[in-house]
Specification:
By secondary structure, the chain is mainly alpha-helical. The chain has one domain. Helices cover about 80% and strands about 0% of the residues. The protein is built from 11 helices and no strands. It is globular, with a radius of gyration of 19 Å. This is Threonine/homoserine/homoserine lactone efflux protein.
């Protein structure tokens, strides 16, 4: 079991530095709302990851086949990201936007952050594909032993979480440099990033079916490791 630790640790580090909408929203939340708010948001993200891991483990190849034949899921997730990004980009500045200290505290506010993190991760079908890929590629290397597989995933996601704590702490240091005007610009930039991520996800949904063959792509990755 311990022989799997280096590979799991490396995989967790790679996952932690993958650039996507969650990455930027996490940094923005830490910088404008503080450490605790960012942790709550991140817990929502990780809850979605755990749900995806469960789905991926139980469904495996059958789900890959369904995803390859249902590109509309990519379009759906991409459109949601685009709409959310447009709302953020076009939104006029409010007191909360210009003074993030007003958004602190309260179970209601933290629940909103948790749900925001969960949904932002959950609508990105690409995250599910990543966890499917991890399980399909790693499974044979751990002899398809459930204990070794979940230990591997546990180390991987724990590494991911610890690295995210570092991101939050570093991003929080930027808070003192964020004037109201800069906060407004950060929100607009984040909106543009979400729009771009949504467009990329939507384009994936319109690719020819042979380009969407996720199962074949993951099998090629696995064959190259064997």
């Amino acid at each position: 079991m311990f022989q799997d630790f280096p590979a799991a640790l490396t995989s967790g580090l790679v996952l932690a530095f993958m650039i996507g909408p969650v990455f930027f929203v996490l940094l923005e939340t830490a910088a404008t709302k503080g450490f605790r708010a960012a942790i709550i948001f991140n817990l929502g993200v990780f809850t979605a990851d755990i749900v995806f891991i469960g789905i991926a483990y139980l469904s495996s190849y059958q789900l890959l086949e369904n995803l390859s034949n249902a590109p509309g899921l990519y379009v759906f997730g991409g459109v949601i990201l685009i709409v959310y990004g447009l709302m953020m980009y076009l939104k006029r500045p409010t007191r909360e936007m210009l003074d993030p200290t007003r958004v602190k505290g309260g179970k209601h506010g933290y629940l909103q952050l948790f749900i925001k993190g969960f949904l932002l991760n959950f609508i990105n079908i690409g995250v599910l594909v990543i966890w499917l890929g991890v399980i399909i590629v790693v499974g044979p290397t751990v002899d398809n032993d459930p204990v070794r597989l979940f230990t591997f995933l546990g180390i991987m996601i724990s590494t991911y979480f610890i690295v995210d704590l570092g991101k939050i702490i570093l991003a929080k240091q930027l808070k003192r440099f964020l004037t109201p005007r800069r906060i407004f610009k950060v929100k607009k930039l984040l909106g543009l990033i979400l729009i771009i991520c949504g467009l990329v996800l939507t384009v994936k949904g319109f690719l020819p079916k042979d380009k969407m063959d996720i199962k074949k792509g993951l099998e090629n990755i696995r064959d190259s490791r064997s």
